[in-house]
Amino acid sequence: MANKKFWRIFISFLLIINSCYFGLELYKEGIRNQWMENEQLNQEAFTELSRLGSWTYFIEVVLLIIIVTVAAWIIMKKHRKLLRFLTYINIAACVIFFGIGILLANIFEATAGNLVQHLIGPTFITVLLIIYQLVLLFMKKRDSTFKN
Prior knowledge:
It is a single chain. The protein is mainly α. The protein has one domain. The protein has five helices and no strands. α1 (2-37) runs antiparallel to α2 and α2 (42-77) runs parallel beside α5 (120-147). The longest helix has 36 residues, at 2-37. Keywords: Membrane, Transmembrane, Transmembrane helix. The chain crosses the membrane at residues 7-24, 55-76, 88-108, 120-139.
């Protein structure tokens, strides 16, 4: 029961954090478009974009901290099934949020790269988790081969 509750909370955090990121990036895109149309907004727009850039960076860091913390906790507990489940969740989240980012970029005529750049870190961590699990699997098979 505790595991289900934990995963619900984890997935909820992923949803909330990614939604906030998309919202801020779309808002930044709107400010950039206004800035290009009205030259008098230069200082105000620059200040607002800088502030929003800080927020999006903060969200990227929080997303990484959450994923790394959960992965480290599971690795320290040596619970391979949970680690595999975390990897599946991360893969699904990266694919889904990448698709949502591309879709939003097309709907709102925004820059697709800005809407999906926050997924670079989680994707990298997921790749590292996959490599870690493959190494564990290889070591387990190697040890069982030598025992026979």
